[in-house]
Amino acid sequence: MKSTVEQLSPTRVKINVEVPFDELKPNFDKAYKKIAQQVRIPGFRPGKAPPRILEQRLGRGVVLDEVVNEAVPAKYREALSSGEVQPLSQPEIEVTNMDEGDLLIFTAEVDVRPEITLPVFGELSVSVDDVEVTAEDIAEQLDGLRSRFGTLTGVNRPVEHGDFVVIDLSATVDGAEVPEAATTGLSYEVGSDELIEGIDDALIGVSEGEERTFTTKLVAGEHAGREAEVTVKLGSVKVRELPELDDEFAQLASEFDTFEELRGDVAERLARVKSMQQGMEARDKVLESLLAATDVPLPDKVVESEIEARKHDAVHDFEHDENRLGEHLEQQGQTREEFDAELGTAAEDAVKAQLVLDSIADAEEVNVDESELTERIVYQAQRYGVSPEEYVKQAQQAGQLGAIYADVRRGKALASVVRRAVVTDASGNTVDIEALFGHDAPATPEEAETDAPAEVEAPADVEADVEADVDTEADPDAPADARKAD
Fold this sequence. Notes:
Chitinase A, domain 3, alpha+beta, Alpha-Beta Plaits, 4-stranded antiparallel sheet, 6-stranded antiparallel sheet, 16 helices
């Protein structure tokens, strides 16, 4: 076999392959065997008809087609290996010659990783927020802890913000009842904004047994996006009485004997969480700086595939109903054109980040050992509420084990860049990344956050995934297909 690689662009190559027919004898043998198993010829048992009989009955073209279908993928992979081509997409293959006795000739065009000139990592410089634990931060955490031990007491007065109420709800659209929107005996904290828009304003000032009607848009069900007349009837009103912040509370809510000990522990844990938040901010900003300093030609087909996958994910959440997606965007004050433009930019950023981090991983010879891969699998299995064995099984079925490996590898590559970049806080102090993450920085913030205290809630941007591909919408580690199945 002879193959040559022709560079069409920085991100695309054309592979020309010529295979002498005498190299295809094993493929002909497999083709005859496969065809013989699929057809029944009188006088021969299944699979036993000789090649000559098969060609008489079916024609030589059927055999040649089977040979080509079986041989081309294998020869394509062989050409990739000999040409040291790293494909990023499915090839576009064209058979240009299959004259028997001569040559099987085909071409394959495929996207490839471009040559990338990486910046000097030590010249990357970013600034992050100071680590500061305020009295308000501590008070907020202590109030959250107090609320766990609060008691609800009934009151005989109109509803106020923060009250706990029991309500009945009903709704109509164009005068017709909406059964799925009706409920009785629903407990709700006024001001929590956890129900439909407008209900908090409607409840304020209402007394027990009274009703209020207001207009709002339904967010789920058959009438999602439609305006409805909602009636809320108040059953009861209760207030939460919180325990005093004293030594008795400290003994009730923690292992400490005094309130001052409890307060000091909360402050210490908050500082640790905020330090992790600072580390994640450093990682995000270093990645942004790295991408801004790196010129990366983007493979068109790979970007197109990423855009289509993201569109699929977006409409999947609305049961593949484009109209419902459009209505949701309208509610958010966004046009479909703006949404598509943002989605396209995010897809380009994700592809660029993957290419850059893969190049760094190659240059740094980054490897992922079994324990690191297992740690990621265990974490993700816990996140999705399945056993590690089930997670691996689903990932294998979806062909995503390679993506998980690549994601961990990219995370390690990014961590190596962060450790060499110049990171300062808002006060001008150099941030010690090694102190935050240790010598081997974790691949994700969650892995650094496993010791976060139960009574101290980590900020949302610490809890969220900071994936190496800067993708905050899609999840490449999902335990089925990374792109949701229909």
